[in-house]
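[Meeting: bench + compute handoff]

Bench side (C.D.) handed over the final construct sequence. Compute side (W.E.) agreed to return the predicted structure before the next meeting so the bench team could plan truncations. Sequence as handed over:
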Amino acid sequence: MERIERAARRIGRDPSEVTLVAVSKTVESARIKEAIEAGVSILGENYVQEAQKKIEEIGRSIAWHFIGHLQSNKAKYAVSLFDMIHSLDSISLAGELNRRAEKEGLTMNAMIEVNLSGETTKFGTEEEKAFDIARRVLNFNHLTLVGLMTMPPYFDDPELSRPYYIRLRELKEKMIKEGIPLRELSMGMSNDFEVAIEEGATYVRVGTAIFGERKK
């Protein structure tokens, strides 16, 4: 949290504008509970089934965000398990989340994941298609679009991530100009979250810096 605060203050941002999501995939519940005791209030999970088990063990005293690739057939579980979806990447998934949320009598907050690198190994929609998804979601009653998410290629030098974060911020600004109300940017991980904060991140997804290297 100190590094988040320093990065924000460096460019004159209020540190309270940046929210930490502790990425807890593959981390056992005992270690997650220690992180909660240390002040973590949001956990980010990549797999619905793994998260479901952890939520049963740990409970909902903290928020749970889904940050991995979500298949449409898991949408019915996701809307009841998670407080926010960071990885909306298609109109079909948006429609399914809206339908499932309506059945549950709730409204789901979501961000569109944008694949700015063009890497085939990464999920996310193309920049141009993000507008189509956003406009469609505006017409839904049980799915609220709150922002954008991206994951750049991994670089040893965090400065090389900066152009991707600038592009996501600029995309958000373009959408706002076209009447799409957005406020969040989910970008930045353990190796480059300080750069992401400098470029406007409101959520940073940090795992290794909190829990250490993951087991292979």
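W.E. noted at the follow-up: Residues 162-177 form the longest helix (16 residues). C.D. will use this when planning the next construct.
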